[in-house]
Amino acid sequence: MDEQSPGGKPASGQKYRTPQGFTAIRDGIKAAATAPVRVPGGKPRWLKAPLAGGANYEAVRRTVREHRLATVCEEAKCPNIGECWNAGTATLMLMGEVCTRACRFCAVDTGNPRGWLDPEEPRNAARTVQLMGLRYVVLTSVNRDDLPDGGAAHFAATVRAIKDLMPQTAVEALVPDFQGVAADIETVVDSGLEVFAQNIETVRRLTHPVRDARAGYEQTLRVLAHAKRHRADGLTKSSLMLGLGETEDEILETMDDLRAHEVDLLTLGQYLRPTVNHLPVARFVTPEEFDRYRGWALERGFRECVSGPLVRSSYRAEQALAGDNAGLDNRALAEGALAAGAGHPRP
Asked: Which residues pair with 9 in a beta bridge?
């Protein structure tokens, strides 16, 4: 059934059977029959990230494996895995490695887990946070439309387990949309977390085909608004990928919509195509543009907007309230790329 890659794993876009006995598609999107579309000029130098490796990286990798946990760092092919794991941080991905949705930007495997959950995961996640000595942890998960509550109770149990073991650790929960069900949103908000995040991902016009048909621009706004109404002192957060074909007017509109729903924190980053089967990059946004867009966000009242080419929703999340773009220096990044002869590729 499966076409194998040289490493013995199913090739990207191919079906395979999981250890739990259900089928899934590697990297989330079926293999395309057409040739990939590429941005002329190639990837600019400012998108180069540190290589994954080193003693700290291997230590994080061992800890994650020993506790049978998944990380979005690996499953979503995050370019920052080298930096984050070498710094001793990781974003834990709950409820398995297979998502019930198939967003066309995301490299997480797609399938129907048919109700499977690891009952030991909340305890294992808490123990991992303790072993890593984390003072701030980001939890995320796959979408689990196969579960009656979308996995809300499991997510909340994990937050509580971490708080029981590490009460001083701040928890950010980057959650699915729970199909907009208010009770499920409240279950997670009431778990003791500090930050409730749900990503809007792209502008209204591009929501479909960028996101799965079951996701929605308005639904994400409603989820974030309900979380804030339910617990006014909690922080809410969202993230926007750029380079998918959006206009600057649409970026501004999305910022305005998020602020109208009282979202506190925003991240902006460059969309990078994870495999040839996913949506192509329409343009590479420059570091200078990311600085300008951050300025727009702050003018609109966001408490912080972490903005840069390699920024992802959980990137340097613990620094999001420092007021300095989480320590990112886009000007230096641009100058370094220019000195190296990167230029400014355009489609």
From this structure: none
Q: Which of 330, 100, 47 minimizes the C-alpha distance to 214?
A: 100
pLDDT at 346 (0 to 100): 42
Q: To the nearest 10°, the Cα dihedral for 190, 195, 198, 201?
A: 180
pLDDT tens digits, residue range 23-61? 999 888 888 755 556 666 678 988 877 667 777 778 777
Does residue 230 sit in helix, strand or coil?
A: helix
Contact 287, 333 (CB under 8 A): yes
Pairing relationship of beta strands 109-111 and 136-141 according to DSSP bridges: unpaired
Cα-based torsion angle of the residue sequence 244, 248, 253, 259 in order, rounded to the nearest 10 degrees: 90
Round the CA-based radius of gyration of the chain to a whole number and report it: 19
Buried b (16+ CB within 10 A) or exposed e, 279-314: bebbbbbbbebbbebbebbbeeebebbbbbbbbbbb
Residue-wise pLDDT for 286-343, tens only, equals 999 999 999 999 999 999 999 999 998 888 888 887 888 988 899 888 777 666 664 5
